[in-house]
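>> received
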Amino acid sequence: MSKLYLTIAAVMFCTAAAAKTSKADRLFEQWEYFKAAQLYEQEAKLHPGADVYFKLGECYRKMHTYKKEEQAAGDYVNAAGTYSKPEFYLNYGQVLKSNGRYNEAKTAFNKYNELVPSDPRGKFYSSSIDIVTEDHLYDEPITISNVTTLNTIHADFSPVFYKDGIVFTSSRTTPEHHKIFEWTGANYLDLYYAKGGSNDTVFSDLAPFGGKNIDKKFSDGTACFSKDGNTMYVSRVEKYLKGADKKSLKIERNKIFIATMENGKWDKAVPFPYNSNSYSVANPFLSADGFRLYFASDMPGGYGETDIYYCDRNSNGWDAPVNLGANVNTFGGENFPNMDEAGNFYFSSDGYQGFGGMDICVALNKNGNLQKAIPMKYPINSSTDDYSILFLKNGKSGYVSSDRTDGRQGDADILYFDMDTNKVNKEVVPSIYTIGYRPAKQPVRPLTMIHTVVKPTFPPFKTHNLINDADLENTAVYFNLDEFYIRPDAIMHLDSVVTYMKQSPTLHLVLGGHCDSRGTSGYNMTLSNNRNNAVIAYLNTKGISPKRIVATGYGLNVLVNDCPKGVTCSDMQHQLNRRVDIHFEGKRIGKID
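>> returned
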């Protein structure tokens, strides 16, 4: 992903090198990582050692050149033995994971957790290895193919529909476009148009897009368009800083510009009102009705490195930015927003327990509200960077942009998938093809194997009779500390519940969400409700109507053991309280063998 990293708003943060003596160090401080890496490579050949290997690895990390980063980091480990700054092991684990070396990555994450047990990221990323390893057991045979009529040896990515073809972003070299971006050593980005052909992978008449009012000196792209194609929103980086701002801020930020079509040509693009010289606003996506613009930004007050925001358009212009919230945004970086016709929200992130690098995630639309997002499964995602999904009209085919090596033509390629052409379960659509998906044909374990817990007190259910415990034990699914994701170990239990409820159409559920005693009462009450919502969302994707479910959040008020506040307990003891209890009510019909 090195050649397109400019489009990621998070890269606009400054990181200084420790030393300031050599030319390479000065280049590093100026964010000219490509040139700095060349000098560090020369120094490593002449005077190999831990210091130069570390600096070289940092250059490659900033450039997202994963293979070279892993090599440099490995050389550093061999030379230094250990490193005094624990953050190295977190970064090392991430690059190993991005290169598909999951076992070594888990060792690095565990090392970081050992050094900094107070930082949950060590456990978070370590457990992600187990999650994706198990998830591969349930991959569907979906073919991902390279769209060779679009891709070059350079970065080609983020297609969007425009008239009878597509517009996409590329760093390819042309006589007009050959200026090098010092961060990565690639060309600056520009927009290109390609006309659609006889099928979804054939394009022709490829040419630079937009004319002089769109195609500027530095980077242009990504872009999106209004439904009628007459309004364009485009990310752009130009040299705007002057005087004191140039001296203090030092680096240009991504901004969004808006252009309209006049007499067959794009007029001069005007800046989006919430652009800033202090933070980036990039990667626009316009809702189908044209009244909401989503974008990525590292503006202050977010959840992590970059977040997804939106602005609504009113009669007087644009309302102030609104953060899309914790169901989408994480401590990491979220970018490349998009949406399908059902209102399910797609984006890319490195802050979920996915396959490595950036993963395409989806937050399901439930009655106008976005549920907690989940990374999509392989092969939509891979161990390296995947981003910018676009669906064709049938909803089961489309394009993704990826840095994966298999089928790769260049630095980043546009890939095509079609779930209807493969021998994929007919139930599979992109919105449910996420980590934790299990095919319907999978044998379902009997409910008698589901974990049992101490029965809590539930609110009264008005219209149905309680199933006695001789028929069915109360069950529970469990959650990680401070999380409300559905874990792989919970999937088999919930799938059994789905089967049982489908066999018993008058059966209802009462859910009780719970937390351990750590944290404040208010925080835990919210977390317990989020855990309920995660279970409801999963069951809904399997065909169980939310109307058959009553859910109550109890926070930390109903513990199943003697682990209240102030009492020292093991994590295993606390784990028993991080749960959603599942209680069946109603008339039982049918039986699970």
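>> Confidence is low (pLDDT under 50) at residues 1-21, 442-473, 587-593.
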